[in-house]
Amino acid sequence: MDTTTTALGVLTGIRVLDFTERIQGPYGTQMLGDLGAEVIKVERVSTLTPDGRPDDRYPAPGTQPTLYTAMFLSANRNKKSITLNLKAPEGVDVAHRLVAGSDVVYENFRPGVMDRLGLGYADCAALNPSIVYCSASGYGPDGPYARKPGQDVLAQALGGFGAVNATGGRPTPVGMSVTDVMGGMNGGIAVLAALYHRLNTGEGQHVQVSLLNSAIAAQSEPAVQYLNGDAGEPVRDTPTQGHPYIPPPYGFYATSDGHIALSCGHQVPQLCRVIGLPDLSKDPRFDSQRARERNREQFERIVEDALRRRTTAEWLPLMAAEELFAAPVHGFTQAFTDPQVTHGRMVTTVDSPIGPLRLVSPGFTLTRTPATIRTAPPSHGQHTEQILTGAGYTTEQIAALRDRGVI
């Protein structure tokens, strides 16, 4: 079902100039686009990176199911695309003209790159004092890591994600670009706050967001326990353990045909009755949270052995009758056909030059100014002439810029 809409979002009338690549920056600008902003994605003229690799949009042959990468498709809807050679003085002049007519500049180059191009915050604020300028980086604008390359898995490693996700002592990264997405969310939220400040004062400002800070901020709950308690380093000792500091039963447990998620630390007697072991909760080894924490491996093995006697589908209604906190553990096939996910319209189908695309919908709703997917990710340079014409360039000037390799 095509659930796209032409309804206006709350940011209708806001123009965002998007100098971003990969996921952290594009995800942040995509959020603004979902809310109605006009997002102009500035892309290099060549579709190869400076070291000769295909850029974010184009996959290596045979590695992706569509013409574009999943990474590009996941973070670039609701955008227009202009190609611009920022190493050419004329290209920077074009960018300056676009900055003067924009509300937000959003970039995620390493600190210092935009300054060297003549497009840093000071340059843009001189052209447009009310500009909201967001810099998204690996580690922030200064400090000992500022000039180091930053990627999601590195931020996960430095920020402790490997520890809270470890099993049996082996650090394990989360199987998605979690700090990229959190960095994009943090950047989008910060830009909204800066736009609200500008609405009240007329003042622009410089917003900073980083992968590492986002990794730390995302772990506030276990981090606060570590910083203020005597829990020590977060460690997950067993495959079923869902949280380094929460006693069992809390995690994913095997059944006869799959797995079931349990969060029943306050419902242990009820759980034990359901699985046919009513006396287990009275066992001195397991009769309190501290006791179950001390004897986690034994408790979880006994519970899982009992759960293996039935299928997940057989256990769920029995647990629901006792109002236990339980859910099936889904893969993507099950998740995207789950009736609640379907009811929430979490997949939007949108037309594109490469055929219908199924994209993940925004994760929130607004009753009066909805966040929507209006357009598919753009093709390379799809809106170059439209954007330049809107910026006051004539047809002849645009042709000359193209001839000189500026666009």
From TrEMBL:
<dbReference type="InterPro" id="IPR023606">
    <property type="entry name" value="CoA-Trfase_III_dom_1_sf"/>
</dbReference>
<dbReference type="InterPro" id="IPR003673">
    <property type="entry name" value="CoA-Trfase_fam_III"/>
</dbReference>
<dbReference type="GO" id="GO:0008410">
    <property type="term" value="F:CoA-transferase activity"/>
</dbReference>
<protein>
    <submittedName>
        <fullName>CoA transferase</fullName>
    </submittedName>
</protein>
<dbReference type="InterPro" id="IPR044855">
    <property type="entry name" value="CoA-Trfase_III_dom3_sf"/>
</dbReference>
<dbReference type="InterPro" id="IPR050483">
    <property type="entry name" value="CoA-transferase_III_domain"/>
</dbReference>
<keyword id="KW-0808">Transferase</keyword>
<dbReference type="Pfam" id="PF02515">
    <property type="entry name" value="CoA_transf_3"/>
</dbReference>
